Amino acid sequence: MKKVRAEYRGSYGGAYLKPALHWQVSYFSKNGKKEIGQVIIDDLSARVLEQWTGFQVAWTMARGYKGAFGRHVNALYIWLPLCVLFLLPFVDFRRPWRWLHLDLLVLLSFSVSLAFFNHGAIYQSVPLAYPPLLYLLLRMLALLRRERSDRSGGERAGAPPNVQRPLHLLVPAPWLALGVVFLVGFRIALNVTDSNVIDVGYAGVIGAQRIVHDEPLYGHFPVDNEHGDTYGPVNYEAYVPFEQLFGWSGKWDDLPAAHAAAIVFDLLALALMFLIGRRVRGPSLGVALAYGWAAYPFTLFALESNSNDTLVAVFVLAAILAATYRSKLAPPARGAIAALAGLTKFAPLALAPLLATHGLWQRTVRTADGTEVVLRARTRVRELASFVLAFALIGAVASIPALTHDSLHTIYERTFAYQDDRGSPFSVWGLYGGLGSWQEVVQIGAVVLAVALAVIPRRADVVGLAAACAAVVIGVQLGIDHWFYLYIPWFFPLVLVALLGRFGPPAPRGHRLRTASSLLVEPASASELNSVAAPAATTVTGPAIQAG
Question: Under 8 Å CB-to-CB from 437, ≥6 apart: which residues?
Fold first, then answer.
């Protein structure tokens, strides 16, 4: 404290009584605008309990208080078993050097950064979060390489389907399903008995109560969560049913409405993972994706913090699920869901171009009965227009509670402007300073990436869409001032869909895999030859196509 006060000549101190017989001694700069140091002293023993300088004065979350986020989920006896449960079912001991093993280990490597954060070692925790982010960005971009059949705009008539290596599961899918049931029960029980509600979940309940009482949504939050109005209106609207069911005392108490919302968001994300997997490769992949969500420790970290970040994952996954259909309602459904995602937390707005152009670069698609259908330009334009119309319509409707009382200027100042102006030590840009030019380069690169992946032909299936969306989300996160571990569930489910969805259905137990080379050597029977012949192409003028 002597060193800090010497740097700020004319600084002065003040003492304040804190709960539990503690004193807080704060030192301020000469003009009183900045708190430069803080000391916590025990009243009975006069012993110094804590002393903080620098950004740890203003940012109490940077001090490493035990259980501040997620409570006991950070304990090694919970975290490490979850890491093992997440990794083990996908390990192939016969092929230890598989890329998938490294991919899953990288997803778990955020735990190293979190361990330093939990001990208040911010100068170690922040830079350690960036290598896995960069690796996952490059890995998702690598998965976007088009298959041979994609380069001509669709599967070639009469060409055999691509031979896919089956997804290797160390245990049968039914056992994983039982694991999902156990993990869901464990997660809910831990949330009810041990979790805490951080300011993010508290803000959702406050906003929901203001919507119900027809009060201004922005600029009027309580003092104990003054900047909780920094999110989109859909975030607060999603909490309305829970605030109505469980109420709110007006204080930052246990907040059962926030607990209920977090549990429902988590269950919705898990269900969507199953449905996407079932649509892409069948129920076995659905179970594997649901298990991955339930076993991944950072999704439990978000649940135990009762934050709103899982809601972002819910909307993004719902858009991916809508992309698995080729019907007239699929494009407007993607547009509506994209608007809801973007008006929850604004980062998902970067996914709108990708979701809008999904499927537009395919010349042909294969229907559920195996018929190959040529998509005309008029059909593509109609799909794009329906996406844009639904995006604008749902976005306007969802904004009504906010625009009824607040001007666009007020909403902008409380959301975009506040988030852009606040400093944060939880990124390399805010922790070290002097990197503004490099940060702008990364931010511009994220915008270019989002647009490029939307207009450049790439892998056209749902796996490619999930990988592209994950790459864009990670690119956006690399350039923001405030990054935190609660943001991992934004891209984690997309990464998992891309990593596991590229494999075929698991082979039956004890069944020897016939590799691509064996298929070339062994003569095919007449029935096998007939089974790979594709029907002739049929031209249609509308998008009413059901994908297999």
Answer: none
